[in-house]
Amino acid sequence: MVLNSLDKMIQLQKNTANIRNICVLAHVDHGKTTLADCLISSNGIISSRLAGKLRYMDSREDEQIRGITMKSSAISLHYATGNEEYLINLIDSPGHVDFSSEVSTAVRICDGCIIVVDAVEGICPQTQAVLRQAWLENIRPVLVINKIDRLIVELKFTPQEAYSHLKNILEQINALTGTLFTSKVLEERAERETESQVNLNSEQGEQVYDWSTGLEDTDDSHLYFSPEQGNVVFTSAIDGWGFGIEHFAKIYSQKIGIKKEVLLKTLWGDYYINMKAKKIMKVDQAKGKKPLFVQLILENIWSLYDAVLKRDKEKIDKIVTSLGLKIGAREARHSDPKVQINAICSQWLPISHAVLAMVCQKLPSPLDITAERVEKLMCTGSQTFDSLPPETQALKAGLSLKKKLPRDVSVQDKGTQRSLQQHRHRYPWSPPRMGVHLTQVQREKSQEVPLGFSAPPDDLPPVPHMAYCTLENLYLLMGRELEELEEVPPGNVLGIGGLQDFVLKSATLCSLPSCPPFIPLNFEATPIVRVAVEPKHPSEMPQLVKGMKLLNQADPCVQILIQETGEHVLVTAGEVHLQRCLDDLKERFAKIHISVSEPIIPFRETITKPPKVDMVNEEIGKQQKVAVIHQTKEDQSKVPEGVQVDSDGLITMTTPNKLAMLSVRAMPLPEEVTQILEENSDLIRSMEQLTSSLNEGKDTQMINQKTQEKILEFKGKLEHHLTGRKWRNTVDQIWSFGPRKCGPNILVNKSEDFQNSVWPGPAGKASKEASRYRDLGNSIVSGFQLATLSGPMCEEPLMGVCFVLEKWDLSKFEEQETSDKQNQEQSDLVKGGQGEVKTYSGRDENQEQQDDCPEPFEKRTAQKGDSPLTDCYGPFSGQLIATMKEACRYALQVKPQRLMAAMYTCDIMATGDVLGRVYAVLSKREGRVLQEEMKEGTDMFIIKAVLPVAESFGFADEIRKRTSGLASPQLVFSHWEIIPSDPFWVPTTEEEYLHFGEKADCENQARKYMNAVRKRKGLYVEEKIVEHAEKQRTLSKNK
Amino acid sequence: MSIFTPTNQIRLTNVAVVRMKRAGKRFEIACYKNKVVGWRSGVEKDLDEVLQTHSVFVNVSKGQVAKKEDLISAFGTDDQTEICKQILTKGEVQVSDKERHTQLEQMFRDIATIVADKCVNPETKRPYTVILIERAMKDIHYSVKPNKSTKQQALEVIKQLKEKMKIERAHMRLRFILPVNEGKKLKEKLKPLIKVIESEDYNQQLEIVCLIDPGCFREIDELIKKETKGKGSLEVLNLKDVEEGDEKFE
């Protein structure tokens, strides 16, 4: 039974002044969708009996099951009052914090919003958030205090108590508005000040300090909610009633004979009526006089509820007749009092009338958009409106001056602008359209949206990501249904089809290229919950990728990454949001089974200087070492035979065929150097290309001046940081960077005849440098690259390590070369017997070596054709690579090794009272607080902390739970940080024994991480299979 | 299974026997299950957590203890603990259920890691994750052979996986520098082994940069060596050609 036909709607759409675009905002479970239901039922789309139970706007299955809204949805309603007819485009938004991105979208489209507050619960965290969002978007709010019935039925308040309770809520919300207002004023003032300071500095004039905050001069009275202004209504959506002061003012002005205007002012507030004198006086609480609101309004409602709940048939009849209502026989006889209340109240005080009347009166039409909002929308970042091109500024006129452009503007007309903020919907039956769905043509311009329109190109300053497209279908959004339209006049909310190839998440649509893209949405929540997603069946990978692309397009607050490890990572705003995304992915976008897991956490390996103090802060070397059982055994296993280790960490190793010898030392790089290397990885890569082309004798003119300069600057920086005796000349001797030839590790060659550094030398010298060592040198570099790619601790890349090649002795190799020819035949025979070529870094080489069966000859990474010197150990170059790699590994192992963890910086906004709990969560997860400051003008604290990525899984959820949603963290990857604890640490001194016990089984953070990675990779983990031998199940199976 | 009848035979539970033959005699010691391998790898350091008793047996299940003179003739000492340690490190072990289980699991993981490391999705040039490979291996019912090296098994797995999903070994990028006169001829021979030729440059020498399947590397290497008699050279530019860096969906 649809009262309003499509034609009617189309007709209404044309009268822009009578359109209201509104959204319903509130904390979760405060009754947004129920309120929307009531409003919808007034249009006859759903039965009024079902209103509040059906939740028409929650069209998704999971929404109905969970009972919360997850996606915004829009519906167009018709409302007539007097002889005015209004079209109301209502958007119902989710209240859960995870979906606050939906709220951001809804708020952007609308001109006004209804803020719903639960009369019992009062102001909740999300109420604050939505109010802030509405404020930031500059849209006008009205207040609905919902669930008044709970005050009567559940809390059993007397009318007087209820009144003071409501007053309290109103005060709270006004205080909140006040804070928002103050912070805005203060912000503006700060901006003004910085500006004026700039001016003053240039003038050197006398400074006049202005200590006034500017608060005094700014009028804020119109901002607040108060019933006498008509922007507050009291409702009970579930029982279908609601009223504003005005309604009763009208009734009582006739009844008592007091002017309506007077009543309007006095119905809310501490006034009482003197019935005899027919005068309204200020309340004197001491005399026990009841305020007007209690006496005239609340008491009536209370008595009605009382009568119905007590099943006082007579009284009910009396009330009904006195109100002039007709109650159907069915309702009157119904056993459930709720039904009766609903039947009576929805006729007496229809909620839809109360709310919609307020909306139509108090909220602006699309024509009334403020100039301020237009300017704000069009200027991104610090740009000011004046800096925009004149064509663009001209658009503002069309936007803000309520100027009606001619009706029959042609398509090419340039004076108009349509911009669309889009917002998607869910239409399971039409997959092609599903991704894209605009809910709005921004209403301010008076232009029709014709079908088949595409914008003409123009020569204006280029806007990134601009594209031309044709709008294919236009739709009227009717909750879970769509009505196709031929045209939509400006100022309406609508759906657009056919944009899926052009629009990702959000876009500004305009018929003119001069229109700047609107500022990005203010998201209250940024995506922080990360999970890795994989298909259950590996062959379904393509479907998954496609599905994730669609999901990315359809959800404004989701991020999707493919990581270098091949993982597909889904980043969502919260656990509930995540659940919805996964459901969408499973059922709609990918249609496959997927599995979700914690994402892989990267680590880096490094070495440090030997520590000066031990774990109990005693100086090392002074105590006597306690003999640890099997300590000696462990030391042996670290370095096999055939490797010489000097006391200062110099490793000398020969190749298996004993022809070459390498001496390598590992040193930690200073932190700044590592940072410089990280930053300049692109430069290093281009340098690498340069050197390789130089080596081939190519034209060196290709290097442009800029890169030259950059390289010099980079080199200078390195030299600046690498000072001291230890690092003398090091920079000139850098041979290579690693891993992948551009990483944060350095190979330095300190041998005497070295002249092949990475720095591009003067042309000619380098090209001539095709020395006898060049090819062998390449093998050594390859060995270094492999060693840096996977460290000895858990096969993760190295970082901040400098390997110094102190000596290399290849003389024997050269002698051999002469007598090479004879060997060749023999070696060919041997070679045939060898197995598969191993081209990769032998991962578990370490263990293999320990097992006394060194087989590095298997790993032949690169072979040069110049000297086919192959003996039973394989080609010489391969041996060199393996030897170099092993040498680097051992060089690392003799130094104190450390693990580096990726760190997030974490910005947390929290109110003062939950600060303690925020700290508790942070410290539980090894986080460190860097700073904490109060935001000016509010009671919010901003906490800056760092948190290891490894501990971040579930962090957002935990912090929200612990602080009841009052703190919301934001995580951004910042840097790598060394974990101070030694993963191989065991207590050695007396004090350490006392402190940690023999087994040191208290948590060692680094070891925990290392073992987790090793386990994941299938590497050997030093862990007992069974901790206590005696505590195994001792029964044999056949008994 | 018959009804349980009380017997005077006491079954050994929670016992793993380690045996060793020395001087023609068999010696045994009684250890706890799942502990011997841990001792050998050095994880377990407490001998009492490994040995049930420090005495050396001839037959553990019958409870026959070894004679002193036998011990002295075989080991040169009668210090039972010392002999126990020797037998523990050198004797033959019964691998217990949990030990075997962890070993197999570890190998399975290791194989999956190697496969994930060597292979890419040919469509995206990105690697698969280890978890995904593990699942795929379970799908094809691959069973780990404990006596074969993990690398060998990984290559086998790749072959089998290719039938089920889109997987390929990551290509290797090589550069050949060949003398001109032999270059042409050699190129024809190399062609079937090369996947993609990225660039060709005829200067004084023929220079080719190309992608190959790592399995063909040895063949190519030998071919070049043989044909050019040491004049041509071969350089590995990149061990595996994969996409680097993270990608964000836009």
Automatic annotation (TrEMBL), chain A:
Task: Give GO BP annotations, semicolon-separated.
Answer: cytosolic ribosome assembly
Q: What is the lineage of its organism?
A: Eukaryota, Metazoa, Chordata, Craniata, Vertebrata
Q: Which UniProt keywords apply?
A: GTP-binding, Hydrolase, Nucleotide-binding, Ribosome biogenesis
Carries keyword Transcription regulation? no
The name on file for this protein is: Elongation factor-like 1
* Region of interest (Disordered), ranges: 406-426, 816-868
PROSITE patterns documented for this protein: G_TR_2 (PS51722)
Any one Gene Ontology cellular component term annotated for this protein = ribonucleoprotein complex
Q: Which organism is it from?
A: Microcebus murinus
Q: Which domain of life is it from?
A: Eukaryota
Q: Where is the Tr-type G domain?
A: 17-272
Q: Which residues form a coiled coil?
A: none
Q: Which GO terms describe its molecular function?
A: GTP binding; GTPase activity; ribosome binding
Automatic annotation (TrEMBL), chain B:
Give the GO molecular function terms. microtubule binding; ribosome binding; rRNA binding
Residue ranges annotated for the Ribosome maturation protein SDO1/SBDS C-terminal domain, each copy included: 172-239
Q: Which residues form the Ribosome maturation protein SDO1/SBDS N-terminal domain?
A: 14-100
Coiled-coil ranges from the UniProt annotation: none
The UniProt entry lists the main location of this chain as cytoplasm
Location(s), subcellular = Cytoplasm, Cytoskeleton, Spindle; Nucleus, Nucleolus; Nucleus, Nucleoplasm
Keyword annotations from UniProtKB, A to Z: Acetylation, Cytoplasm, Cytoskeleton, Nucleus, Ribosome biogenesis
One GO BP annotation is: cytosolic ribosome assembly
Organism's domain of life?
Eukaryota
Query: Which Gene Ontology terms of cellular component type are present?
Result: cytosol; nucleolus; nucleoplasm; spindle pole
Q: What positions does the domain Ribosome maturation protein SDO1/SBDS central occupy?
A: 109-170
Task performed by this protein: Required for the assembly of mature ribosomes and ribosome biogenesis. Together with EFL1, triggers the GTP-dependent release of EIF6 from 60S pre-ribosomes in the cytoplasm, thereby activating ribosomes for translation competence by allowing 80S ribosome assembly and facilitating EIF6 recycling to the nucleus, where it is required for 60S rRNA processing and nuclear export. Required for normal levels of protein synthesis. May play a role in cellular stress resistance. May play a role in cellular response to DNA damage. May play a role in cell proliferation.
Q: Which family does it belong to?
A: Belongs to the SDO1/SBDS family.
Q: Would you tell me the protein name for this molecule?
A: Ribosome maturation protein SBDS
What species was this sequence derived from? Microcebus murinus
